[in-house]
Amino acid sequence: LRTTNQRQNPVPSEPAAGERLQKVLAGAGAGSRRHIEQCISAGRIKVNGEQATLGQRVSVSDRILLDDKPVIFQSVDVGTRVLMYHKPAGEIVSRDDPQGRPSVFDHLPALGGARWISVGRLDFNTSGLLLLTTSGDLANLLTHPASMIEREYAVRIRGELSERQIEQLRTGINLEDGLAKFERIEARGGGASNHWYHVVLFEGRN
C-alpha cells in the first residue's frame, strides 16, 4: 500500500477562538465531522470537564477529552494524505472492539502527528474498497450526501426481488434515522435460492 499527498494545505496546529467543536476535532484528525457528532451525542467528549454539546464552540484555552484522553493539536505542518485499502472480509473498521477482532487500522502505515480516518465504513463480513485520509474535513466532504458521490455494492440475497420490491427500494424506505433509498438496482443473476444485485446509493447507512 502506498500513501499519496493529495494537497499541501497545512493542518491547523490548534483551534482558533470560537470554532465549532466538530470542526476542531476533525481538523485534529480525531474523525470525520459526522463521527465526532456521534461521539458528542454518546457522551464520549468533554470540554473543561463538562459533557460536550453539538455545535459547542471552543478556543485554544479549552481542554478537550475524547474517551477521557486529551486531544493533542500537533504543531507540525503535514499535507493531507489519502490511502486506498482493499478491505477483506473478517476485519472491522474501528480501533476499539470489545471482541478483539482484527482491524483495518492494524495494517496501515504509521503516521507521525496525524491519524487515519476512514471515509465511511464496511461491515465486518464485507470486502471492498475503503478510503482513508488524515483530513477530517475531506472525510466529511466525501461522506456527505450533498457531495453526490456514488457508492456501489454487490449484494447477495436469499430469494429474488419482485418488481414491486425493486420499485420500493428505489422510491425509499423509512428507517429509524430517516428515508433511505437506492439510486440504481441491477439484477446480476444467481442460482435457485440466491441472487446477486448491484446497488448504488449516495450515503452510507447502517
Structure description:
This protein is α+β, with helices and mostly antiparallel strands and 206 residues long. 16% of the residues lie in helices and 31% in strands. The protein has four helices and 15 strands. The strands form five sheets. The protein has a four-stranded antiparallel beta sheet with strand order 1-8-10-9. A four-stranded antiparallel beta sheet has the order 4-3-6-7, with no helix packed on it. Strands 11-15-14 form a three-stranded antiparallel beta sheet, with helices on one face. A hairpin with a 2-residue loop joins strand 6 (64-66) and strand 7 (69-70). It starts with a strand and ends in a 5-residue tail after the last strand.
Sheet with the most strands, sense and barrel status: 4 strands, antiparallel
β-sheet strand percentage = 25-35%
**Overall SS class:** alpha+beta
Radius of gyration: 19 Å
Q: Work out the helix count.
A: 4
The largest beta-sheet arranges its strands as 1-8-10-9
Taken from the alpha-carbon principal axes, the silhouette is elongated
N- and C-termini, Cα separation: 28 Å
Average pLDDT number: 83
> Can you count the beta strands?
15
State the helical fraction: 10-25%
The H/E string reads EEHHEEEEEEEEHEHEEEE
| Uncertain regions spanning at least 5 consecutive residues | 1-14
